Amino acid sequence: MELVARVTGVHEAIIHTEQAKVPDIKALITDGIASIGPERAYYTQAMRIRVDDANLRAWVDGELKKRWGALAAARAYLICQTGFDGVFIDPFDKRVPSQKEMNKTLRVPGAPPKAENAYAVGQALAWIASRGSTCKNRRIHERDPSIDAGNARPI
């Protein structure tokens, strides 16, 4: 497995140099390389945490629906089950999110056909959070610690 480390600080520092001094690129890259070990541990843990369908359904229909709403929960479940995003067929359907009928829309990049670990579930949530319907929803999703697979437990 190849590990690609994100060096977020480099990107942010370079963007903010239009009127300031040039950042210490060497220090930024050194810090980025130092983060590779913890990042590898994070992804290894997320990929080891197994997800079974019954617990995924319970979590989607309970905690996720409560925090993110029925549509986001139903979309997350669809992505985890098929690798596709979607929309409600009947927006007035009163069933729980995991049982709502959905029309598939887009294949989610990198999503497996069936989520089997916390990493795949986290990726589904990250996809939804990055495509929030409103700025307010996007901020809520991005701050929600439930998308942090490093703190996940088997669901």
By helix and strand content, what is the structural category? mainly alpha
Count of distinct strands? 2
C-alpha Rg (nearest Å): 18 Å
- What helical percentage do the residues reach? 40-55%
Percent of sequence in beta strands: 5-15%
Overall geometric form: elongated
Let me know the largest β-sheet.
Answer: 2 strands, antiparallel
Element-by-element helix/strand order: HHHHHEEHH
Total domains: 2
Number of helices: 7
Mean pLDDT: 82
- Low-pLDDT parts are 1-5
What does this structure look like?
- This protein has 155 residues and is mainly alpha-helical.
- The chain has 2 domains: 8-48, no CATH class; 53-151, no CATH class.
- It is 53% helix and 7% strand.
- It contains 7 helices and 2 strands, in the order αααααββαα.
- It has a two-stranded antiparallel sheet with strand order 1-2.
- The protein is elongated.
- Mean pLDDT is 82; it is low at 1-5.
Brief overview:
The protein has 155 residues and is mainly alpha-helical. It has helices at 8-15, 25-34, 36-48, 53-68, 70-82, 118-130, 135-143; strands at residues 84-88, 102-107.
